[in-house]
Amino acid sequence: MLTFTVGSGPALEVAEFADFTTGCALYRVDRVGTFTLDWDSGHHNDPEDPDAVELLRVTYGAGTDFRWHPPMPDAPVLFGITLAGQEPFTRGALGRNPMNLRPHRMISTAPAYAPVGVRRRTNAIVHTLVDHWLDQPWTPDLRRAHAHHHAPHTLATYSTRLANTEQRFQDLEREQAFCRDVIDRASTILKNGPVPAPDNAPPSPDTTAATTSTATNGR
Fold it and tell me: What span, in angstroms and rounded, lies between the C-alpha atoms of 85 and 126?
Protein backbone atom coordinates (compact mmCIF):
# COMPACT_ATOMS: atom_id res chain seq x y z
CA MET A 1 0.00 0.00 0.00
CA LEU A 2 1.29 3.44 -0.97
CA THR A 3 0.61 6.67 0.87
CA PHE A 4 0.54 10.05 -0.90
CA THR A 5 -0.01 13.51 0.48
CA VAL A 6 -1.79 15.55 -2.17
CA GLY A 7 -2.21 19.24 -1.51
CA SER A 8 -4.04 20.16 1.66
CA GLY A 9 -6.37 17.15 1.48
CA PRO A 10 -6.10 14.02 3.59
CA ALA A 11 -3.35 11.51 2.82
CA LEU A 12 -4.31 8.99 0.17
CA GLU A 13 -3.89 5.26 0.69
CA VAL A 14 -3.30 3.72 -2.71
CA ALA A 15 -2.99 0.14 -3.97
CA GLU A 16 -0.87 -0.16 -7.11
CA PHE A 17 -1.36 -2.75 -9.88
CA ALA A 18 0.37 -3.35 -13.22
CA ASP A 19 -1.46 -5.23 -15.99
CA PHE A 20 1.18 -6.59 -18.35
CA THR A 21 -1.48 -8.13 -20.59
CA THR A 22 -2.87 -4.77 -21.70
CA GLY A 23 0.06 -2.60 -20.61
CA CYS A 24 -1.62 -0.31 -18.09
CA ALA A 25 -1.14 0.66 -14.45
CA LEU A 26 -4.08 0.87 -12.05
CA TYR A 27 -4.04 2.95 -8.90
CA ARG A 28 -6.89 2.11 -6.55
CA VAL A 29 -7.28 5.05 -4.16
CA ASP A 30 -8.94 4.09 -0.90
CA ARG A 31 -12.42 5.61 -0.53
CA VAL A 32 -12.08 7.31 -3.94
CA GLY A 33 -11.80 4.77 -6.75
CA THR A 34 -9.44 3.64 -9.49
CA PHE A 35 -7.38 5.68 -11.93
CA THR A 36 -5.98 3.71 -14.89
CA LEU A 37 -2.82 5.05 -16.53
CA ASP A 38 -1.40 4.04 -19.87
CA TRP A 39 -0.34 5.46 -23.22
CA ASP A 40 -2.60 6.75 -25.97
CA SER A 41 -2.67 3.76 -28.32
CA GLY A 42 -3.72 5.90 -31.30
CA HIS A 43 -0.72 8.20 -31.06
CA HIS A 44 2.67 7.23 -32.47
CA ASN A 45 5.63 9.52 -31.94
CA ASP A 46 8.36 10.13 -34.44
CA PRO A 47 11.50 8.40 -33.08
CA GLU A 48 13.23 11.78 -32.98
CA ASP A 49 10.49 13.48 -30.95
CA PRO A 50 11.43 14.52 -27.40
CA ASP A 51 9.89 12.63 -24.48
CA ALA A 52 7.79 15.68 -23.63
CA VAL A 53 5.45 15.03 -26.57
CA GLU A 54 4.77 11.40 -25.63
CA LEU A 55 1.02 11.06 -25.22
CA LEU A 56 -0.12 9.42 -21.99
CA ARG A 57 -3.69 8.73 -20.88
CA VAL A 58 -5.83 8.51 -17.76
CA THR A 59 -9.09 6.59 -17.58
CA TYR A 60 -11.42 7.35 -14.69
CA GLY A 61 -12.19 3.81 -13.59
CA ALA A 62 -10.62 0.36 -13.76
CA GLY A 63 -9.43 -0.76 -17.20
CA THR A 64 -8.96 0.91 -20.57
CA ASP A 65 -12.01 -0.49 -22.39
CA PHE A 66 -13.58 2.93 -22.08
CA ARG A 67 -17.28 3.71 -22.16
CA TRP A 68 -19.35 6.69 -21.01
CA HIS A 69 -22.37 4.79 -19.77
CA PRO A 70 -22.75 2.89 -17.57
CA PRO A 71 -19.82 4.23 -15.49
CA MET A 72 -16.49 2.45 -15.64
CA PRO A 73 -15.90 -0.14 -12.88
CA ASP A 74 -14.73 1.48 -9.64
CA ALA A 75 -14.94 4.97 -11.16
CA PRO A 76 -13.47 7.59 -8.78
CA VAL A 77 -15.86 9.59 -6.64
CA LEU A 78 -14.75 13.02 -5.44
CA PHE A 79 -16.95 15.29 -3.34
CA GLY A 80 -19.88 13.01 -4.11
CA ILE A 81 -19.41 13.24 -7.88
CA THR A 82 -18.53 10.15 -9.95
CA LEU A 83 -15.88 10.91 -12.53
CA ALA A 84 -16.24 9.80 -16.12
CA GLY A 85 -14.04 10.08 -19.16
CA GLN A 86 -10.69 9.20 -20.61
CA GLU A 87 -8.14 11.94 -21.24
CA PRO A 88 -4.82 12.06 -23.09
CA PHE A 89 -2.04 14.35 -21.93
CA THR A 90 1.60 14.82 -22.80
CA ARG A 91 4.57 14.31 -20.53
CA GLY A 92 5.11 18.01 -20.95
CA ALA A 93 1.82 18.64 -19.15
CA LEU A 94 3.41 17.29 -15.97
CA GLY A 95 5.47 20.47 -15.84
CA ARG A 96 2.31 22.52 -15.41
CA ASN A 97 0.37 22.89 -12.20
CA PRO A 98 -2.43 22.09 -12.63
CA MET A 99 -2.17 19.68 -15.56
CA ASN A 100 -5.36 21.11 -17.05
CA LEU A 101 -7.26 17.83 -17.10
CA ARG A 102 -11.01 18.26 -17.54
CA PRO A 103 -12.80 15.20 -16.16
CA HIS A 104 -16.50 14.71 -16.80
CA ARG A 105 -19.44 13.57 -14.77
CA MET A 106 -22.54 11.88 -16.11
CA ILE A 107 -25.88 13.66 -15.94
CA SER A 108 -28.34 10.91 -16.80
CA THR A 109 -26.62 9.44 -19.89
CA ALA A 110 -24.95 12.66 -21.07
CA PRO A 111 -21.39 13.69 -20.09
CA ALA A 112 -20.80 17.15 -18.64
CA TYR A 113 -17.70 18.78 -17.19
CA ALA A 114 -17.20 18.21 -13.47
CA PRO A 115 -17.26 21.29 -11.21
CA VAL A 116 -14.09 23.34 -10.79
CA GLY A 117 -13.31 22.02 -7.31
CA VAL A 118 -13.57 18.42 -8.51
CA ARG A 119 -11.36 19.17 -11.51
CA ARG A 120 -8.75 20.80 -9.29
CA ARG A 121 -8.61 17.81 -6.93
CA THR A 122 -8.54 15.37 -9.86
CA ASN A 123 -5.60 17.20 -11.43
CA ALA A 124 -3.65 17.05 -8.16
CA ILE A 125 -4.30 13.33 -7.64
CA VAL A 126 -3.55 12.31 -11.23
CA HIS A 127 -0.36 14.40 -11.27
CA THR A 128 0.88 12.61 -8.13
CA LEU A 129 -0.01 9.15 -9.47
CA VAL A 130 1.57 9.77 -12.89
CA ASP A 131 4.80 11.06 -11.34
CA HIS A 132 5.01 7.87 -9.30
CA TRP A 133 4.10 5.61 -12.23
CA LEU A 134 6.68 7.04 -14.63
CA ASP A 135 9.39 6.77 -11.99
CA GLN A 136 9.00 3.01 -11.52
CA PRO A 137 11.70 0.63 -12.84
CA TRP A 138 9.07 -1.64 -14.42
CA THR A 139 7.35 1.14 -16.41
CA PRO A 140 9.53 0.73 -19.56
CA ASP A 141 8.57 -2.96 -19.63
CA LEU A 142 4.93 -2.00 -19.19
CA ARG A 143 5.32 0.36 -22.14
CA ARG A 144 6.53 -2.53 -24.30
CA ALA A 145 3.65 -4.71 -23.07
CA HIS A 146 1.23 -1.93 -24.06
CA ALA A 147 2.77 -1.73 -27.54
CA HIS A 148 2.53 -5.52 -27.90
CA HIS A 149 -1.13 -5.55 -26.85
CA HIS A 150 -2.05 -2.87 -29.37
CA ALA A 151 0.25 -4.09 -32.16
CA PRO A 152 -2.46 -6.05 -34.07
CA HIS A 153 -4.72 -2.98 -34.22
CA THR A 154 -1.77 -0.75 -35.10
CA LEU A 155 -0.71 -3.14 -37.87
CA ALA A 156 -4.19 -3.24 -39.39
CA THR A 157 -4.73 0.51 -39.11
CA TYR A 158 -1.41 1.55 -40.59
CA SER A 159 -1.45 -1.12 -43.30
CA THR A 160 -4.71 0.40 -44.53
CA ARG A 161 -3.29 3.89 -44.15
CA LEU A 162 -0.17 2.90 -46.12
CA ALA A 163 -2.24 1.34 -48.90
CA ASN A 164 -4.32 4.52 -49.15
CA THR A 165 -1.17 6.65 -49.15
CA GLU A 166 0.41 4.53 -51.90
CA GLN A 167 -2.77 4.84 -53.97
CA ARG A 168 -2.66 8.63 -53.56
CA PHE A 169 0.99 8.61 -54.67
CA GLN A 170 0.06 6.59 -57.76
CA ASP A 171 -2.76 9.01 -58.54
CA LEU A 172 -0.39 11.95 -58.08
CA GLU A 173 2.23 10.32 -60.32
CA ARG A 174 -0.39 9.85 -63.06
CA GLU A 175 -1.50 13.46 -62.62
CA GLN A 176 2.13 14.58 -62.70
CA ALA A 177 2.80 12.62 -65.89
CA PHE A 178 -0.35 14.03 -67.54
CA CYS A 179 0.57 17.62 -66.62
CA ARG A 180 4.10 17.15 -67.94
CA ASP A 181 2.73 15.75 -71.22
CA VAL A 182 0.37 18.71 -71.68
CA ILE A 183 3.19 21.15 -70.83
CA ASP A 184 5.53 19.46 -73.31
CA ARG A 185 2.93 19.62 -76.07
CA ALA A 186 2.17 23.26 -75.35
CA SER A 187 5.90 24.10 -75.32
CA THR A 188 6.41 22.39 -78.68
CA ILE A 189 3.49 24.32 -80.17
CA LEU A 190 5.00 27.62 -79.00
CA LYS A 191 8.46 26.70 -80.31
CA ASN A 192 7.01 26.01 -83.77
CA GLY A 193 5.77 29.59 -83.92
CA PRO A 194 2.49 31.00 -85.29
CA VAL A 195 0.71 28.95 -87.95
CA PRO A 196 0.51 30.84 -91.29
CA ALA A 197 -2.67 30.50 -93.30
CA PRO A 198 -2.22 28.35 -96.43
CA ASP A 199 -2.94 29.89 -99.85
CA ASN A 200 -6.12 27.88 -100.27
CA ALA A 201 -7.62 29.06 -96.96
CA PRO A 202 -10.46 31.58 -96.81
CA PRO A 203 -9.40 35.13 -95.99
CA SER A 204 -9.01 36.28 -92.43
CA PRO A 205 -12.07 38.08 -91.06
CA ASP A 206 -9.84 41.00 -90.10
CA THR A 207 -8.58 41.30 -93.69
CA THR A 208 -12.11 41.08 -95.08
CA ALA A 209 -13.30 43.80 -92.72
CA ALA A 210 -10.43 46.10 -93.71
CA THR A 211 -11.10 45.59 -97.43
CA THR A 212 -14.81 46.30 -97.01
CA SER A 213 -14.08 49.50 -95.06
CA THR A 214 -11.68 50.81 -97.75
CA ALA A 215 -14.21 50.18 -100.51
CA THR A 216 -16.92 52.00 -98.57
CA ASN A 217 -14.78 55.04 -97.90
CA GLY A 218 -13.86 55.30 -101.58
CA ARG A 219 -17.45 55.75 -102.73
Answer: 13
